[in-house]
């Protein structure tokens, strides 16, 4: 299998239950809910996506002909970053790679997960939940979208962009997730959406507010 990757970069997780954790982001190209082209947004299943996942022209992006080659590129980004950190003591933390997109499960497979595990990585996935998951994922975050069939109904975190027309957060509470996160929808109404998310979580304490802290901090 050839993997199409938009970008590979080091940052800290900006949202959800693992906010603040250093990670390599492995962003796959392509999605099954939107083409990524603005001219198609109005007819897409997901019309509010704020991510560029089109093509393979981002930092570290490209076409990778095998799991090992892609894993080598991910590992090199981690090694380059850790080589800049001097004077540390104590045991090394297990490195985290976050497979995202677009929709990463259109490409992420057991062979690549195994290669990443063999290189010492913990593998996290951020998915829209419409594609069956491969075995071996260490952290699974599902972000349901209105109008899309939810196939993945258990995992570590359910992260719901809020508000979405016709979507009631309470309808997800019977699913088998450890964490339920409510993330204000970005855009011109982000302040009102944030206020609404905070209000909902105050009244429904099973939910936690998830802010896009990477945008607040101005980092990738």
Task: Provide a descriptive summary of the structure in words.
- The structure is a single chain.
- The chain has 220 residues and is of the alpha/beta class.
- The protein has one domain: TIM Barrel (Alpha-Beta Barrel), CATH 3.20.20.
- The chain has helices at 67-83, 110-118, 190-203, 213-217; strands at 3-12, 22-28, 62-64, 96-100, 122-127, 139-142, 154-162, 176-184, 207-209.
- A nine-stranded mixed β-sheet has the order 3-1-2-4-5-6-7-8-9.
- The longest helix has 17 residues, at 67-83.
- The protein starts with a strand and ends with a helix.
- The mean pLDDT is 96.
Low-confidence sequence ranges? none
**Which strand order spans the largest sheet, edge to edge or round the barrel?**
3-1-2-4-5-6-7-8-9
- Distance separating the two termini: 28 Å
Global geometry: globular
Write the CATH architecture name: Alpha-Beta Barrel
CATH superfamily, please?
Answer: Aldolase class I
Would you state the CATH class?
Alpha Beta
Write down the domain tally: 1
Named CATH topology = TIM Barrel
What does the average pLDDT come to? 96
């Amino acid at each position: 299998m050839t993997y199409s990757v938009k970008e590979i970069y080091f940052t800290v997780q900006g949202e959800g239950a693992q906010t603040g954790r250093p990670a390599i982001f492995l962003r796959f190209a392509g999605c099954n809910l939107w083409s990524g082209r603005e001219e198609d947004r109005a007819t897409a299943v997901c019309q509010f996506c704020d991510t560029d996942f089109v093509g393979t022209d981002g930092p570290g992006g490209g076409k990778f002909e095998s799991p090992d080659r892609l894993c080598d590129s991910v590992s090199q980004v981690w090694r380059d970053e850790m080589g800049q950190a001097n004077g540390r003591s104590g045991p090394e933390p297990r490195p985290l790679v976050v497979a995202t997109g677009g929709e990463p499960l259109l490409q992420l497979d057991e062979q690549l997960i195994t290669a990443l595990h063999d290189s010492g990585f913990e593998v996290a996935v951020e998915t829209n939940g419409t594609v069956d998951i491969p075995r071996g994922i260490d952290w699974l975050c599902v972000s349901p979208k209105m109008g899309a069939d939810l196939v993945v109904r258990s995992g570590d975190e359910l992260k719901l962009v809020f508000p979405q027309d016709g979507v009631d957060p309470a309808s997800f509470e019977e699913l088998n997730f450890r964490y339920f996160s409510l993330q204000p929808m970005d855009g011109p109404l982000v302040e009102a959406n944030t206020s609404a998310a905070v209000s909902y979580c105050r009244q429904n304490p099973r939910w936690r507010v998830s802010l896009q802290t990477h945008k607040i901090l101005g980092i990738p």
